[in-house]
Every structure is written in structure tokens, then in C-alpha cells.
Amino acid sequence: MARPPAWRHTLDEGRRQALVAIDFYNRPGDRRSMADFIVHIHLAWQNLLHADRMRKKAEIFYRELGKQRKFKRNPDGSKKTWDLTQCLKHEFQENDPIRANIEFFIGLRNHIEHRFQDSILTVTAAEAHACIINFESEVIRRFGESETLGNELKFPVFIQSLSPSHYDEQRILRRQLPSSVSTFITEYERSLAEAIRSDERYAYRLLLLPMKGPKTDADMALNFVRQDDLSREDLQALVGREGSVIIAEKYRNAASGDEMLPGAAAAAVESRIPYKFGLNEFTTVRKEWQIGPVKFGSKEQLPKSDGYCLYSPTFNRFTYLPKLVERMVSELDTAEKYKKLVGKLPKPK
């Protein structure tokens, strides 16, 4: 059997560190440790990025200034690998929400005091949740679905977030936050653009609602619903059903592999009709049908988008399904149809 590549061991260690971090975070009572979560999720990210760069044969070692062939060394003589901050500079753009989230925990690491960790856990829950989801997404994006952590993790059983008697306790914990931590969080978030602060890859917030009613065999204990899709009446109706609904600031997952970016979708349509059909024409038609984002860069979708497009966190934009391509092809196959829908005469290819 062939010896596995070196990056394989580094990736396995990254996944192991992530699972250890999640374990420390989800432990009950005094066994829970925010400090250990930060240490291990830090190592998880560092190993993941090292593994990917090793696989691509990219640099991961510090070199002496002005001496490109000479590596910096640790006290034991081994080559000094890049720290996480250095990896982030090479793997993510400066304004990337994933990078901002990781750098938040790098900075927070120096402000953790064990006696205040419950307060810190309370105010940073959204960021911690985002950090884990981001890690999972990046593992899959870089190494494929086979490396998912999902097979080893289940949704935790808990009571605190669903019990109104604990709301006051949560408020008290927030008030007990040390001033040094509060100052760090305030100043760090003030340095971020609003688009990053509101991105689910920086802070992933959940609203949990207990629900009642008869259970059917098809019901799941947990159902995921977009809050933007619900009216006040919808929310009231949901409370009358079985289980728990999690209303998450997260969009549908575009992971089946059939989705296309706008340019690719336009090209797919053009290849099957006798006329030129570019991105501008594609945008005109999908807006006419009320499909896709409300405006460029928006995460809010038009009212008739279901079944035709999905929001992709990877591309930070909407992607389009083959169903939409098929519909456009059938509605643009004659000059008369084309002019009526696009608003101008078609140009033959």
C-alpha cells in the first residue's frame, strides 16, 4: 500500500482538532471550556490551511530575510511553519468574513479569563457557531464531501435556550463580561465593515422556537426555516406544530453540483437557441420572471425564485438551476418569443 502524502496527516490532525474544539464547547457545566475551544479551533484552522497548501506544493515555512533558500528554525532545529495569521493573509482576502471571524478568535484568545468564560461564551456564541460552519465548508470546498465532519457530529440535546426561565440568567452573564473583553469585541467589530458584521460567515445567529402538535412519521425533530420567508402569521402558525424550528440566518445550500453562475447559465441558454444571448439578456429575463436577487449583491431573493436559484455562500451570490435554463430555452426559441420577452430583436449567432 502506498504511503499517504504528508498533507493527509496534517488534514486529519486539523479535523481532529476541530472535533476536540466542538467537544469542549458542547460539554455541560464546569467541563465546558471556552479557552480550550479557542486553542483547538485555532489549531484546526492552521492544520487545514497547511494541508491544503502542502497539497498544492505552496509555501508554509518562514524564511530568513533576504535568504530565500534558508528557512527559519525552531529551537529543536525543525523548520518554522507559518502561524495562522500568516496563512490567513495568503488564503483569504482582507475583507473576507471567514478571515474576519478567525481573526476575531485569534484576538480574543489573549482576553480569556476562566472565571468569566460563561459570560464570554454567551456573547460570542454566534461567532463560535460561524467558525465551526466555516471550517466545515472550507474542508469540503478544499478536499471534498468525504472529509465532512457531519458524519461524526449530531445536533446536541439541550434545554437552556428553550427555557424562558434562563433568559434573565443570560442577561446577567452579559453584564458580567470583563471590561477588557467587552472593549476588545467592541473595537474589533467597529473596525469591520457593516457587510462583514452582518454576514452569516462572521456571526451565525439562530432563533429557536418550541412547537407543539401531533407528530407524523415524516416529521423531523428539527426543521430549518429562513426567517425572511416567514410572515408574523407564519411564525404564529409554526408554534402550533411539533418539534423545534430553527430560524437561521443562513441560505439554502447550493451543493448538488448542477448550479451555474449567471454567465454560465446565459451561455447554456445561448448554446441551445439560434440567437445570441448574454448576461444582460439573462438578467432581463430572470428579473421579468421575478427570479434571483432583488439587486446585485443582495442576499434577498425575488418572490418567484424557488426552484430556479439558490444562494451560494461559496460564491457569495445566487446560482441558477438547470430548470431555469430549460424554461428560458423553451421561451426564447423563436424570434417572436425572444422579442416579446427580452424587449428587442434577437441577433442570429
From TrEMBL:
**Which superkingdom?**
Bacteria
All residue ranges annotated as the DUF3644 domain in the record: 11-191
Pfam families registered for this protein in UniProt: DUF3644
InterPro entries this protein is in? DUF3644 (IPR022104)
Q: Protein name, please?
A: DUF3644 domain-containing protein
